Amino acid sequence: MSRQLAHLSDEALVLLAARSEDSALAELYDRYGRTAYGLALRVLRDPTLAEDAVQDAFLTLWRTAGKFVPERGKASTWILTLVHRRAVDAVRREQRRRAESLDPATEPSVEGVEEDAWLRLQRERVQEALRRLPDAQREALELAYYGGFSQSELAERLGQPLGTIKSRMFSGLSRMRELLGEPGTEKSWTSTT
Amino acid sequence: MDLHDLTAAYALDALDADETEAYERHLAQCAQCREQLAELNETAGALAFAAVAPEPPPQLRSAILATASAERTNVVPLPRRRWVARGLAVAAAVAACVAVGFAVSALKSGPSRLVVVVKLGPHRGRGTLQVKGLGAAPQGKTYEAWVIPPGRPPRPAGLFPGGEGTFLVRLGGVPPHSVVAVTLARAGGVRTPTSPPLIKTST
Known about the structure:
The complex is a heterodimer of chains A (193) and B (203).
Chain A: H1 10-18, H2 22-44, H3 47-64, H4 75-93, H5 95-98, H6 117-131, H7 135-145, H8 151-158, H9 162-181, H10 186-189
Chain B: H1 7-11, H2 17-29, H3 31-47, H4 58-72, H5 80-95, E1 102-109, E2 112-120, E3 126-132, E4 141-148, E5 155-160, E6 166-173, E7 179-186, E8 199-202
Antiparallel strand pairs in B: 1-2, 2-3, 3-6, 4-5, 4-7, 7-8
């Protein structure tokens, strides 16, 4: 049934969800549930905690869809922000997991994971942009976003002044924004946005 | 603390609780920061796509949709006692239904016809449960399907909200001679059954 909504934009689906159309929520889950789960799993390293974070985020979406303002940003950004926030809250409660978050051995492997072409393209283009960042900026972004470390924790962990951490995060995100906007990436072939 | 400087950290969720609160108060006053945040948020959101994303377990989707649907049925509360009485009558009738590999039960149950079908695929006994005509679960509740292999404890196999239409639950592996059951559980589902089954079929 939800596939009848396949032609609608994410933003239109959020507006339908605000009117308690649960098929719209199902469609949003079908579009972003997997990315949401991958993100939560990357931050939390625990399938049960990751499921909880995703469920909590989608139910928050369902309950607060009426507050979504399309002018302020994309619906997908909002959904992934909800997921990320919940994952970070949970990882800060579960201090012990965080020590492992730098260990590449615990990184979920891409082997054996079936991805659709769109997801793979997205992943490769963001990973490529991350690779092209200066090391210090990439490190700050990765520890903050995937590790769930606060800026003060990062300053302590990396032995740098807080101001340096702030500027690495800002420069890193700004540079990422430029890189993701360059030709060869999604924006160049979706002319309508 | 210069609050303008916190936009990137906020977009990355890298502020502690006090800083977040201070920044959000500032944001309400500062159009420039709101604009910058919209941009940086989008880029931070893109980082989500760099994580390798395995398929989430199917019960996650059904749990989310069942809970959402249960919250929505708020609007039309079901008379609970009558519902439970009807459910138990259904359980007794359905429990009688036995077939090998393919169990079908169709019976009259008040105004709507309840249809329960368990199908077992040829591939390692993977099964699906189809349920039609079971009224929407009351507020804060969900239907939960169980696979009970012989001599083993029940395994939760998925959630569905009930109501209009046919509900399909992918049961995963169904070992030979398992019982497939449906209970009413609290929203979000439970790990072990907390109430007697409403529907019970042998396979």
